[in-house]
Amino acid sequence: MKITFVTADYFSLAGGMRVIAIYADQLKRRGHEVLVVSTAKAQPSLLRRVKSLLKGEDWISVPKRQLSYFDQLDVPHVVLDHLGPVTESDVPDADVIVATWWETAEWIATLSTAKGVKVYFIQHHEVFDYLPKGRVDATYSLPMHKIAISKWLVELMKTQYGDGNISLVPNSVDTQQFSTPPRGKQPIPTVGMVYSPVYWKGCDISLKAFSLAAQKIPNLRLVAFGHSVPSSEFPLPLGSEYVHQPLQHTLKDMYGRCDAWLFGSRSEGFGLPILEAMACRTPVIGTPAGAAPELLSDCAGILVQPEDPEDMAGAIVKVCSLSDAEWQAMSDAAYAKASNYTWDEATELFEAALYKAIERHKRGDFSQVDN
Fold first, then answer.
1. What is the pLDDT of residues 202-228, one digit of tens each?
2. Alpha carbon of 368 to those of 135, 360, 361: distances in Å?
3. Quick count: other Cβ atoms within 10 Å of Cβ 275?
4. What are the distances in angstroms from CA 205 to CA 94, 227, 310?
5. Which residue of 134, 162, 205, 275 has the lowest C-beta tally within 10 Å?
6. What is the reported pTM?
7. Quick one: pLDDT band at residue 62, thresholds 50, 70, 90?
8. Under a CB-based contact definition with an 8 Å cutoff, are residues 272 and 18 in contact?
9. Coil vs helix vs strand at 348
């Protein structure tokens, strides 16, 4: 197949972009002709920069080129010289063209069929307050074959948008990048978390749970990393270890120094840190967001009530109170769950979904949404 992925920000280091990069790379390795097309990154205009100076503010510098998950991959890519929308002249003719978030779905919906059968890769239900909700919502009813990364997204597409023909392709995890040898509990009880000021990431829930658990475990330590500088709104506890924008190869060491990893999200498409921690043999204590209900089954972690720091704190105390043998059993279960489904298997499902989209197009299925 000739496959085009359309992204809105090639240089994003969000987890969703990592997943896109993995599929682009894996599909190319399978012999497909893959191209990634991304829009230019928004730059401050000269007028805006001059106005900043006139107001007595600092000169707004042009952002430097950022790192990308595609940097080390042998995947052709085109970064356009303009912002969206992506037009006919921006993409080649192909068998399949894949939208990777709501705005790109709007763009490819207007393209001719020569640019490929239209597929919508859904990694979250992106009807957020900071986005134009009506437009975002409308993209989920577009006549495209949809690929979703978790069961809750598949069910949502069926119940809310009346589309019962969704391909489920759960994420996997790179067990070479995220891997640690078997170990026992930490000498000092330690839990970890991803730090983010984004409300739906639930950083406040995890921090409150840590504070409550620390009242019963006085020497409890917190390890955290994130893309944001910690703010006064969500301050880290005294003595926390925080790494801002850590290098990818260092993440396994952070996961591997924890007795448990906290996942406090209110909403999540999937929740890649859950799998990353589990691949590093760290049990996860998580809210039922994204794929957590499936991933934390079979004693691989502890599922807690949403919006309930007290319940999460109780789970922290429980994990830290386990005997070494009991903790190792939970650690082994977490590792087993994370390692029993590979990116090769996920790519097979993704590839099958693309072929399914082509077959549905040939049948004329996209004249109306499936019921």
1. 999 999 999 999 999 999 999 999 988
2. 19, 11, 11
3. 25
4. 45, 18, 9
5. 134
6. 0.86
7. very low
8. yes
9. helix
Q: Quick one: tokens of 35?
A: 């191209």
- C-alpha to C-alpha distance for 151 and 157, rounded to whole angstroms: 10
Cα separation, 250 vs 275, in Å, equals 16
How far does Cα 301 stand from its chain's mean position?
20
pLDDT in tens, 152-201: 999 999 999 999 999 999 999 999 999 999 999 999 999 999 999 989 99
User: Identity (one letter) of the amino acid at 183?
Assistant: R
On whether the CB atoms of residues 203 and 266 are closer than 8 A, the answer is no
Structure tokens at 277: 């921690």
Residues 6+ apart with CB under 8 A from 145: 117, 118, 119, 120, 165, 167, 353, 356, 357, 360, 361, 366
Query: Distance between CA 256 and CA 183 in Å, rounded?
Result: 9
Cα-based angle 99, 31, 21 (whole degrees, multiple of 5): 40
Residue 369 has pLDDT above 50, yes or no: no
**Quick one: which H or E segment has residue 360?**
helix 343-363
pLDDT value at position 266?
95
Give Cβ neighbours of residue 104 (< 8 Å, ≥ 6 apart).
6, 7, 8, 84, 86
Distance of CA 53 to the CA centre of its chain: 38
Closest CA to 259 of 247, 246, 277: 277
CB-count burial class (<10 Å; 0-12, 13-18, 19+) for 229: exposed
User: Which residue's entry shows tokens 């006064």?
Assistant: 232
pLDDT digits (tens, 9 = 90+) for 329-347: 999 999 999 999 999 999 9
Helix count (H) and strand count (E) of the chain? 12, 13
Burial 91-109 (b: 16+ CB within 10 A, else e): beebbbbbbbbbbbbbbbb
**Residue 232's pLDDT is what?**
87
Alpha carbon separation from 195 to 297, 309, 369 (Å, rounded)? 24, 16, 39
Query: How far apart are the C-alpha atoms of 3 and 270, rounded to whole Å?
Result: 24
Residue 3: which H helix or E strand, with range?
A: strand 2-7
